[in-house]
Amino acid sequence: MATALADQTLLLPSPAAVFGGGSDRLSQEIFSILESNFLFGASPPPPLEGGSFSSAGRVRVLSIDGGADGGALAAAALARLELKLQELSGNPDARVADFFDLAAGSGAGGFLAAALFACRMPAAAARDVVAKNRKVLSGRCGGGLFRRRRPEAVFRKVFGEMTVRDAAKPLLIPCYDMASAAPFVFSRADAVVADAFDFPLWQVCAAACGVGCPAEVASLDGRTRLRAAAAGGGGGASAAVANPTAVAVTHVLHNKREFPFAAGAADLVVLSLGGSAAAASLLRPSSSSLLRIAGVCQADMVDQAVAMAFGESRGSNYVRIQGNGMAGGETAEAALAERGVESVLFQGKKLMAQTNGERLDGVAEQLVQEHHRRLESKMPPVVLVKPSATPRTSSSSASTLITVSTNSSSESP
Predict the structure, then answer these.
(1) For residues 351 and 343, what is the distance between their CA atoms, to the nearest angstrom?
(2) Which residues contact 302 (CB under 8 A, 6 or more apart)?
(3) Which residue intervals define the domain PNPLA in the entry (predicted)?
């Protein structure tokens, strides 16, 4: 086991120590305002009297990191969460996708999000696929069940001919496009309105995980073409969007057609699944290990920014699950028994009172309560999933890190 974190490990000096007493709280308030405005836009409309949850409900968001561990911790967390959801709801056939309104996944997290929301795969089955194909899902080609076949075979086998628009609910999967030198977000909101933004799911997941050097991806009509970067040891998206939580949150808050009542953090409940910190340790200096470290740092920065934007409601409306460093030979399930870790402004990382597993169980209770509330409510639907035939009035490209790379080239993908 990696060296355990102290209950409060200081990585940077406290502003109070530098500027005098009282500035710590002031600095936190200033940064909270800045981050909130950056993520959600300034001056959001005030909540309805009595709180928006009591009237319109909360949008349930699932965000899954790529992770240098190949999605092992996230897959284990999803399997545990699904079992708890089945127990609390009394439905043995319940799936994770039944209790969330949107999923965003980066790298191996993109595969997990697509498998759960497009294929309706049981979380335990998705965990088994991840366990057998860790090298492929973490951007290191080869190994696993498909070692004698091309690495993208795992994605072809799972998704077949399915495309992004086949997802039952909103789905976001980022990658890094070398052609435009910018992040690109594969989005169901775009895919349902134009073939130019609809892609085969197996290609999307291969691109997100960095399979191919680089991976060539083309839309169904060939008008949109990408050259997804292959960043070994963390997936192609790890260099750009290791933690897709901010992408998911901004998509919800700016997509008024599908999420008409989401005006701010109080209208969301977000579960963000990270990876194991030990998988990104710099044992031997190399380009891939440096990329893994960069991905972990980027994921932690997004985690802290989003937590600050949620403010006082982050304890209930925003839950981040991540490993505290697993030693060799330990399972991802063991990380769920560890105490949770949170990033604190100017104060590094802090161990929480609850374990990751206990926090997951708490999220499950919230999700089931919201599910039952919707079944009994006479209020308008909280989420209006865009059907395939609607005109293009809302898109992830309006508010998230997305750059469309289109051309008329006849080259094959």
Answers:
(1) 9
(2) 242, 243, 245, 246
(3) 62-249
Asked if 106 is an active-site residue, the reply is: yes
As a whole number, the mean pLDDT across the chain is 76
Q: Predicted confidence band at 29 (pLDDT cuts at 50, 70, 90)?
A: low
Reported as a pLDDT band with limits 50, 70 and 90, residue 23 is very low
- Low-confidence winner among 18-22, 66-70, 92-96, 176-180 (lowest mean pLDDT): 18-22
Q: Return d(Cα 369, Cα 374) in angstroms, integer.
A: 9
* Type of residue at 326: M
Given 106, 219, 289, 395, the catalytic residue: 106
